[in-house]
Specification:
heterodimer, A: alpha/beta, Double Stranded RNA Binding Domain, B: alpha/beta, Rossmann fold, five-stranded mixed beta sheet, three-stranded mixed beta sheet
Chain lengths: 238, 220
């Protein structure tokens, strides 16, 4: 009797180990799903109004508009563009946004930042400002506007605990995401607009769930950041 | 056989529950609990850069009243919790930096009386009101802070030359904080920081635009 019980426990334990191993594999697959991407379509447009060029002692700064109370560009996106533009091939010298704003305090605060070239002229013609701009070596201001939005969600995923205490999810969820950003480039030393670069990305994310949900996320914002950064490098560095 | 399978499944279920489901559930519950917990206590600590403005060649006495020095805003938003925003001590360095840039010489004063002090005039900022809102109230993405200051400008004999209000505004977008992140305190801190920077910018510009102050400055 004792031996039968020992055997039963041994078999049960082995089965348990096998199933736990299977669950571990499923979790790894889920993590893979998170890192896998859905399809993303990207479009980039560029309008040039003047020549550009950056010498070794000059830099650019990537800024976002902060005076709006809706559709404010995400900090994460601006930081991404700053980082991508300042690294990799054909990288440009990029001054961090907050450092630039602090150098020229209080002329680029949300309330006081120039909204158009006329405002910019009024600022840069002041001797103190012109001297500071010369000192910090910033040549181009890149104003980023736009957001990433999610829409057209369909389906659902329901999770429950099935017999035996094992959690499981079932269903299918999908949604559309769209990123639309525009960068306006100003030459701060001349007070002119040198052009615009626009980056649009759209994609569909979906989460099929059969016991374990497998998300496939369309990383539209990341793709928009990559394409905008590459285009800025080409545009300004030309 | 069926009894063995039932026992096996129960053993598996218990093991999965204890090893995976319970810790994850506890973690998620804790994150939701802390994220959704009502209220926040905010102590603001702001350092502003030196304003890039032209200084006026006068000796200005500066007086801060007790209310400004110790300002603490407390508010109960009922369903959304209790909030406090402690501005008090951080406002002084902000105003000091602004006034140091605006005037050639700044003289701190313990009272509005400027006898025995070699100053040309006295400026006394005071705080009238602070209001704030959270996204749950406004159905927007922003934590917002409004601060209303009053600036009183006195002659050395104590007569009031001019008084004007300074409205300051700051906001923080909740999208800049993670979905599961405890965001109320850092977001309100950020909004308060931007409001104080806005106040500093406003004071830097508005002083020179006041008509009565322009007329007074013509003496210098």
């Amino acid at each position: 009797m004792h031996n039968k019980r020992t055997v039963r426990f041994s078999i049960a334990n082995n089965q348990c180990q096998d199933i736990l191993s299977t669950i571990r594999v499923i979790c790894i697959i889920t993590l893979f799903g998170f890192s896998a991407s859905g399809c993303v379509n990207t479009t980039v447009q560029e309008v040039r109004e003047a020549r550009t060029g950056l010498s070794a002692d000059q830099s650019i700064v990537i800024l976002s508009r902060k005076h709006k109370t809706r559709d404010e560009t995400e900090n994460k996106f601006t930081d991404c563009v700053s980082e991508k533009t300042g690294t990799g091939e054909q990288s440009l010298a990029v001054m961090p946004e907050q450092e630039f704003v602090d150098h020229l305090f209080p002329w680029f605060e949300p309330r006081t930042a120039p909204l158009n070239l006329e405002d910019l002229e009024g600022i840069i013609e002041r001797p103190l400002i012109a001297e500071r701009i010369q000192k910090i070596g910033v040549r181009y201001l890149v104003w980023i506007e736009g957001t990433t939005q999610r829409s057209d969600q369909a389906g659902s995923v329901q999770c429950t605990v099935v017999s035996g205490g094992v959690p499981a999810c079932f269903g299918f969820l999908s949604w559309e995401s769209g990123s639309n950003y525009e960068a306006s480039i100003w030459d701060i030393t001349k007070g002119i607009n040198v052009g615009k670069v626009n980056s649009e990305a759209s994609g569909t994310s979906f989460v099929p769930a059969v016991v374990v949900p497998l998300p496939f996320i369309a990383r539209v914002q990341a793709q928009a950041c990559n394409t905008l950064s590459e285009q800025l490098k080409t545009f300004i560095g030309a | 056989m069926s009894m063995m399978n039932r026992k096996t499944m129960t053993l598996i279920g218990r093991t999965v529950f204890i090893r995976y489901v319970l810790p994850v559930s506890l973690l998620v519950t804790l994150m939701f609990a802390t994220g959704c917990a009502g209220g926040a206590n905010v102590k603001v600590n702001v350092n502003i850069p030196d304003p890039l403005v032209q200084s006026v060649p006068i000796r200005m006495g500066i007086y801060y009243d007790e209310n400004l020095l110790n300002y603490l805003h407390e508010e109960d938003l009922d369903y959304y919790g209790e909030y406090s925003i402690d501005l008090g001590s951080t406002q002084i360095p902000v105003f000091d930096r602004v006034f140091d840039a605006m005037f050639d010489t700044v003289v701190p004063m313990d009272s509005l009386s400027s006898e025995d002090l070699n100053v040309d005039a006295v400026l006394a900022p005071s705080i009238e009101q602070l209001q704030f809102s959270i996204p749950e109230q406004t159905r927007s993405d922003f934590f917002e802070v409004w601060i209303k200051y009053r600036m009183d400008f006195y002659e050395t004999d104590g007569s009031l030359i001019h008084t004007w209000n300074v409205m300051a505004y700051g906001k923080a977008n909740q999208k800049n904080y993670g979905a599961m992140q405890r965001k109320k305190r850092p977001a309100l801190t950020e909004a308060s920081t931007w409001a104080l920077r806005d106040a500093a910018a406003n004071v830097s510009f508005e002083f020179h635009r006041q008509q009565k102050i322009k007329e007074w400055l013509e003496k210098y």
